[in-house]
Amino acid sequence: MDATELTRLRRKLLAMREMISDNVGLEVADDGSSDEGGGDLSGNPLDMADIDALYEDDIADEVEQDIIEDQEDELLAIDDALEKIEKGRFGACESCGCAISRSRLESVPQARFCLLCRRVEEE
């Protein structure tokens, strides 16, 4: 891979990193910023609608946390790819050592594995 392609992919990785960082920052800032309570302070028992709302809030919180964790993992992969560019190891499969195809790196520049090794890993 020549220097021009590496520079272009590095810029793409940096743009992806910025977008995800902004996203994670917004989601973390939103986490817990709501003052909506989960209980009835009057001492009245919760009705089914309250219980359903609490359940839905819990599910939404779990989904949001999963998304944040996925984005944090993506940031780590991007940082790893940027480090590989700096060290001259970018584009090599971490499993077999073969070159990752250019088309794969174009679509997933933070890819750690070639397609064959990725398929094996997923099985």
Explain what this protein looks like in three dimensions.
With 123 residues, this protein is an all-alpha fold. The protein is built from four helices and no strands. The two termini are 30 Å apart. The protein has one domain: Up-down Bundle (Four Helix Bundle (Hemerythrin (Met), subunit A)), CATH 1.20.120.910.
Radius of gyration: 21 Å
Number of strands: 0
User: Taking all residues together, what is the mean pLDDT?
Assistant: 84
Proportion of beta-strand residues = under 5%
What is the topological layout?
Blueprint (H helix, E strand, L loop, with lengths): L2 H28 L17 H40 L14 H6 L7 H8 L1
Helix pairs in contact: 1-2
Features:
123 residues; mainly alpha; Four Helix Bundle (Hemerythrin (Met), subunit A); 4 helices; elongated
In brief:
Helices cover 67% and strands 0% of the residues.
